[in-house]
What we know:
Blueprint: H1 2-38, H2 42-69, H3 77-86
Amino acid sequence: MKVFLKFLEVIFTIVxxxxxxxxxxxxxxxxxxIGLLNSFPWQYYAATIGGYFIIAxxxxxxxxxxxKHFEKKYESALMRLFEKIFNKKS
Length: 90
């Protein structure tokens, strides 16, 4: 039974990681579909998808400094996920 539960834990961990990646990449995928449907040039993709990731990075940096100012620890959801997955105690 313990082996079966460990196997399920591995499967659910993989599904959880994939689900979080889908959530992160959903908006760029929508931008991509809109661009393909409207036959936009490559500059559209560079501006929208690149802009999305730049805005996400800026928000992460702002949150880091705001939480550092108030002496609280801030980690992104993705970092908490990786910490939860890789720092498990068996």
